[in-house]
Write a structure and sequence with these properties.
Helices cover 22% and strands 29% of the residues. By secondary structure, the chain is of the alpha+beta class. The strands form four sheets. Strands 6, 7, 8, 9, 10, 13, 14, 15 and 16 form a nine-stranded mixed sheet that branches. Strand 15 and strand 16 form a beta hairpin.
Length: 289
């Protein structure tokens, strides 16, 4: 007898950790019955069927992704990331194509050949899966280092638009509240005096009759979930935020990275540029154009 996950990992030639995740989704059957417990014992006499979801057609996907490119030159790619898309892989259940996959397809071929194991090649900052908007990526290692330094030194200026569930206390203010990882739910973050410095400027752009408001957000630091945590702490979580928004759910997280100001390599040295990602149709529809 052997564990089901061990048996399938050897038979299919894929990592056992991935097999375990797949089994839990109900894609394995033993003697005609769905099994979701990776530790289930099986023998050679058992009929084991394993049907993981198909891998998407990467070539077709890469071709379609070009519609999200805002700007491209020999050194950088700027995209308008759709809501729901991952920036880079993180060991998911199935092969999910990401922003990083597209960047790899556009990366310097010689440098790519020497970095085949790097699944974040060219990624210098990230947006949450649920957040849409502007992202800049590098097409070579020198540019990646150049862009990364600007984010680390807070020289890259970002502007977001967010629809929040209620009007904040001031028409414009600075939120200076440190953030740390939650001990009870490590995938989330909380405001805490012992956390890392996190600063966000906001301005109310529009008020709605139902009490919601459209905010312009300018993060001065880049903590994970910073905008979502800050606004939830103020009692005006972003509409559609099922993690920090409590009852304020929606069809999508109403957070969009609208603008990015950053220096990029140019023919005559560094060139300061401002890139804008137009609001997606579903966001425009909710905020009224």
């Amino acid at each position: 007898m052997v564990r089901l996950d061990t048996y399938l990992a050897e038979r299919e030639g894929i990592p056992r950790s991935l097999v375990q995740k797949l089994i839990k989704t109900g894609v394995a059957m033993v003697n005609g019955e769905v099994v979701t417990r990776p530790a289930r014992s099986v023998s050679e006499a058992d009929n084991v069927v394993f049907q993981p979801p198909p891998t998407p057609d990467e070539g077709e996907w890469l071709a379609r992704f070009s519609q999200h490119v805002v700007y491209i030159d020999d050194n950088v790619i700027v995209i308008n990331k759709p809501a729901g898309m991952l920036v880079h892989a993180k060991g998911g259940v199935a092969k999910e194509l990401t922003v990083a996959d597209y960047v790899r397809s556009q990366f310097d071929p010689d440098e790519l050949a020497d970095n085949t194991d790097n699944n974040r090649l060219g990624i210098v900052h990230r947006l949450d899966r649920a957040t849409s908007g502007v992202m800049i990526c590098a097409r070579n290692l020198a540019t990646a280092s150049y862009l990364s330094r600007q984010f680390a030194e807070r020289k890259a200026k970002k502007v977001y638009l967010a629809l929040v569930s209620s009007l904040p206390g001031h028409s414009a203010a600075r939120i200076n509240l440190p953030i740390r990882r939650s001990r009870r739910a490590p995938a989330t973050f909380v405001v805490d005096g012992n956390g890392k410095v996190a600063i966000t400027d906001y301005t109310v752009q529009k008020e709605y009759p139902d009490g919601r408001a459209l905010l312009e957000l300018r993060p001065l630091t880049g903590r994970t979930h910073q905008l979502r945590v800050h606004l939830a702490h103020l009692g005006c979580p972003i509409v559609g935020d099922a993690v920090y928004g409590h009852a304020h759910y929606g069809d999508r997280l109403m957070l969009h990275a609208y603008q990015l100001e950053i220096s990029i390599p140019g023919q005559d040295g560094a060139e300061r540029r401002i890139f804008t990602a137009p609001l997606p149709a579903d966001f425009q529809e909710v905020i009224g154009g």
